[in-house]
Structure to design on (96 residues):
């Protein structure tokens, strides 16, 4: 089991309140809104944390990805990019 799988297992084992608090902490660290690919539609819909929540219906144009620079990326053991377009880490891993 790698770091990401451990993180997912830990999240699944939490009660709703604890999980919500953990996700809120990740959201505070999320840098999606700073990404060149992020757009006004995603901003008005308050989208972020694509690496866990999945892709955006707003974002279709790849500009540049800053996912590897995000503290959530490092702390969660992520290994993909362009989650806003490609889907969550889980979705990407499951598709391979």
């Amino acid at each position: 089991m790698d770091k990401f799988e451990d993180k997912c297992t830990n999240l699944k084992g939490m009660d709703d309140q604890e999980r919500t608090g953990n996700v809120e902490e990740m959201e505070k660290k999320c840098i999606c809104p700073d990404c060149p690919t992020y757009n006004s539609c995603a901003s008005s819909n308050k989208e972020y944390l694509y690496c866990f929540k999945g892709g955006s219906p707003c974002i279709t144009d790849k500009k540049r990805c800053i996912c590897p620079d995000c503290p959530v990326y490092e702390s969660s053991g992520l290994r993909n990019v362009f989650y806003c377009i490609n889907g969550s880490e889980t979705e990407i891993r499951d598709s391979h």
About this structure: Residues 3-95 form one domain. The chain has a mean pLDDT of 97. The chain has seven helices and no strands.
